[in-house]
Amino acid sequence: MPKPFVTIELDKPRHLRYGFNQLCELEDLLGVPVSKLPEIEIGFRELRTLLYVGLRGEDPDLTPEVVGSLIDEAQSLDYVFSKVSEALQLAFGSSEEKNVQKPVA
């Protein structure tokens, strides 16, 4: 059964999901195990990477630069961060909020 997704409104409604392959890709791109996500400082680059990886399952043609442009179309950075956080929580099957830091502005 695939992991549930979170709908995020960007240029259009998109599905944000972190399955096993996406979590492995996050580890590769961020250089830390996903278990350490709550401990790293999330900046703009990390937020873009988190969103990029979570959206690529639905749209493999996305690039980090295109995702950055999609973030520009979002309601706010807080909105994007909250949707990414929600999708990560679903990936681990927990309704408990994970202690992931907000992006540093």
Low-pLDDT windows of residues? 95-99
Radius of gyration (CA) equals 12 Å
Largest sheet: 2 strands, antiparallel
User: How many individual domains?
Assistant: 1
**Spatial strand order of the main sheet:** 1-2
Helix/strand/pairing class, anyone? mainly alpha
End-to-end C-alpha gap: 37 Å
- Tell me the series of helices and strands, N- to C-terminal: EEHHHH
Give the mean pLDDT.
Answer: 88
Q: Looking at the chains present, what oligomeric state does this protein adopt? A: single chain
How does the overall form come out from the CA principal axes?
A: globular
Per DSSP, the total helix count is 4
- SS strand fraction: 5-15%
Helix content: 40-55%
Number of strands: 2
Description:
It is built from 4 helices and 2 strands; from the N terminus they run E-E-H-H-H-H. By secondary structure, it is mostly helical. It has one domain (6-91). The chain has a two-stranded antiparallel sheet with strand order 1-2. Strand 1 (6-9) and strand 2 (13-16) form a beta hairpin. The longest helix is centred in the last third of the chain and has 15 residues, at 77-91. The chain starts with 5 loop residues before the first strand and ends in a 14-residue tail after the last helix.
